[in-house]
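Quick note —
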Amino acid sequence: MERPAEFNLVTASDGPKLVLTGDWTATSIGDAARDLYDAIIGDESPKSLDLTGVGRLDTAGAFAVIRATDGHIGSDRVNGRPESLRLLQLVGAAAAAKPVVATKPRGFHEMTIRIGKGVFDLGHEVFETLVFLGHLLVAVGRTAGYLVTNPKRVRWAPIVSLMERAGLDAIPIVAITSLFIGAVVGLLGANMLRQFGAEVFAVELIGIAVLREFNILITAILLAGRSASAFAAELGSMKMNQEIDAMQVLGVDPFEALVFPRFAALLITIPLLTFVATLAGLFGGLLVTWTVLDLGPSFFLQRIIDYVGVTQFMIGLVKAPVMAVVIAGIGCRQGLEVGGDVESLGRRVTAAVVHAIFAIILIDAIFALVFMELGL
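Predicted structure written out below.
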């Protein structure tokens, strides 16, 4: 049983002596540390210290004694057991040590450190992305096997639900945005080509811009803002609440239950949304050419068929599956990387949107270069 920490000031031949008794530990010291400090800084400061009556002494008690007696009692005037004296010596040395202030690198040194950290972080991101893709391919292969052997094991309900959220619910915003984009392209083309007396070529400009680029680009960017952020927030919230860990304990693969349905939903819905964006963009351009250039709808559609053709639409549609994989992959991966705090969730949701939009523009540029080399 612990004894409370106590002290007394007694009179000795060489002056007042401080005698400590009891257990001077973190759990038993109580107010004795404060009382000891107040007593020593009084008028009659002790000249020696007696620790022979101390039962147990830990670092908390040793620090309290050192704090109170520092500058009043020399180390050669302390009497006690060897282990107590050794502990006082160690704690005193640690308390007297000054903190080491690390010098902050500057100039070229700081630049090299930041570059090194950036390269390391990039390598870590590449490795984690490859791990994510590996898990996803395993889930896709397993689900493909279910389609052949046991279609009931495929999670159709979440796929259909996500198709509605990422597809049907996105039709209004995709259509309206594409409508205005087509109208703006038509208006700019008509104003610029009027200087050369070639207003009629505004139809081809609208057709190529909408069918080849803006239909899939606008669709993918809008879905990056809607779906990638939603996927990251949903999976991130589940990660914070340890629901994903619970699924793994129950033997449920998170990639099969959570990631694959989102991939499948976007793979199915993005081509449909691209078609809707194409119709809306052409309709916006048609309205502009009809009202500004007085070119009728039949003339507009005939020139689209004759001089633009279905090839431009197929070039835009080929990008849709790639965009779907990028959007779903970035959103799901960022969601699975969420930590245990809300700040991490916010960072990952923001990163999902930014990374998805950057990847969409980069992939579109790569497709443009490839098709240019192929002569398409």
